[in-house]
Amino acid sequence: MRRQRDTRSENLLYALSVRYERWRREHSGPVAGREPRTRAVLFGAGSAASTLLHSMIFDPRSRFEPVGVLDDDPERQGERLAGIAVVGTRADLAAVVERTRAAAVIFTIGNAEGSLVREIRARALAAGVRFLVVPETSEVLDHELGALDIREVRITDLVGRHRITIDPEAVGGILSGKRVLVTGAGGEIGSELCRQIHRFEPAELIMVDHDERALQAVLLSVDPRGEMHDPSVVLADVRDAGRVREIFRTREPEVVFHAAALQHQPLLERHPDEAVKTNVLGTLAVLEAAENVDLFVNVSTAKAADPVGVLGYTKRIAERLTASFAGRRDGTFVSVRFGNVVGRSGSLLATFAAQIADGGPVTVTHPEATRYLTTTQEAVQLVIQAAAIGRSGEALVVKPGDPVRIAEVARDMVDLSGEPVDIVFSGLRPGEKLGETLFGADEADRRPHHPLIAQVPVPPLDPSRVRDLAANDLAELCAPPSFESRAA
Q1: Nearest to 425, CA basis, from 350, 347, 368
Q2: pLDDT tens-digit profile of 439-450?
Q3: Beta 370-371 vs 332-337: how paired, if at all?
Q4: How would you classify the pairing of strands 340-341 and 373-374?
């Protein structure tokens, strides 16, 4: 009973201190040299909101005055967080803004789907107030979330804010103390793989790429004191099978992440033989050299599911080659398949940003086109987690969110830019689908170990078929009829 009385007293004192602080600020007038605080309504009554409200109330540097909280959970209505009441749901946003004379709505949900972020933003703008967000967890690793972290919305917020949960013990078990090799280490995915792998303290991180500038950049991102004579960086092309074998013989990696690939779909449609040389024969060279590895992870793409173009077909062949080595080697050989990475060079967001900066127009293939979008950090976190749970011969399909309508993304980016830029529809290009699929027609969405990772078996492809076809006609390998009839 005494403990209960003490707890009640603590809660009462806290509530009184909050009310006094609010009364003092409302009646003491503005502080000299400081702008008046912006009255703000928070959307989301979770732990982030509680932490943020405390900072907004007591941090003298805060630019915001909290005047209410909205949350869609009916059981939270009437609750108080740091003395601020939950006063409604999203449907009440306009009325609450008017009643409280708020000038901003702050979105505080860290793992929301892009559709929710976009809806609350639209409601806030319709109510005539600013829309702001709290950063994702990965942005505030070195301090507790506070009022100073509140920022303007970014396009990645509107695409989705997916909080990825990984099992550090499982991941550490495959990486810590191991010799880990990453091909394509200078690319968007490869470099982020290197950064995240480095945190698990591998015995050695071997970064392989054919681009010397990209190698230097990834080395410095992993170790700011690193120099190009560092043995961690290896200049090599996966197309050179002899060089690849030499690297594996001398460095003896235990874990391999194969991220080297050509990815630009329209360009590969024009130059299919180059796609085959890197995506198929390069993958085969790395697979054949990986004789004694414990784990081999082939980084794939959603376009490998029921492929219709050069990129999809070459990546699907790479998945099937990887599966064929699952039955030949003692180690685990898996592929990991995910959607479009939003920050990637040449990605649709990068293209839209460049078009907006150039004054437009922004070109979208089709008004109904949809894609799965994910950030680089999310994709790589899931790749590493998938590697820890995959069974040899599988493709692990990562799905951090729902597909996004590309025309809406384009409109959001134009809106955020504040520039009068037109959007035009150019039509689907060769090898493109209207909607992206993560699973083939014969693949089931089973997620036995992780809610965001499905595991599907992959039919193996005998490497001799690839070598024979490559010797006769490399480009023919990318044509759907030839591939289906000769590689099935």
Answers
A1: 368
A2: 877 778 888 888
A3: unpaired
A4: parallel
How many H-runs (helices) and E-runs (strands) does the chain carry?
A: 18, 21
- The enclosing H or E element of 80 equals strand 80-81
- Alpha carbons 359 and 356: distance in angstroms, whole number: 5
Spatial contact of 415 and 447, defined as CB atoms under 8 Å apart: no
Active-site residue identified among 178, 277, 303, 315? 303
What does the pLDDT read at residue 310?
86
| Ramachandran class of 44: left when φ > 0, alpha when ψ lies in -120 to 50, beta otherwise | left
Annotated catalytic, 399?
no
Sign, CA dihedral 354-358-363-369, equals positive
DSSP letter string over 413-438? HHHHHTS---EEE--PPTT--SB--S
Q: Which residues contact 376 (CB under 8 A, 6 or more apart)?
A: 188, 189, 192, 341, 342, 343, 344
Rounded CA-CA distance 417/411 in Å is 10
Instruction: Give pLDDT, residue 257.
Output: 97
In the prediction, which pLDDT does 86 show?
94
Q: Find the range with the poorest average confidence among 151-165, 318-332, 353-367.
A: 151-165
How many Å apart are CA 53 and CA 69, to the nearest integer?
10
Q: How far apart are CA 348 and CA 214, in angstroms?
A: 21
Neighbours of 427 (CB within 10 A): 9
Residue 255 contacts residue 225 (beta carbons within 8 Å): no
Cis peptide before 361 (omega within 30 of 0): yes
Measured distance CA(18)–CA(66) in Å, rounded:
12
Three-state DSSP string of 300-316? CCHHHCCCCCHHHHHHH
Q: What is the pLDDT of residue 130?
A: 94
H/E element, 169: helix 168-175
pLDDT surpassing 60 at residue 153: yes
3-state secondary structure of 278: helix
Spatial neighbors of 58 by CB under 8 A, at least 6 apart, are 21
Q: Give the residue carrying structure tokens 């293939």.
A: 365
CA-CA-CA-CA torsion sign (104, 110, 114, 119): negative
Is residue 149 scored above 60 in pLDDT? yes
- Retrieve residue 148's tokens: 């100073």
Distance CA 179, CA 181 (A): 7
Name the token pair of 325: 């080595």
Residue 58: band (very low, low, confident or very high) from pLDDT cuts 50, 70, 90: confident
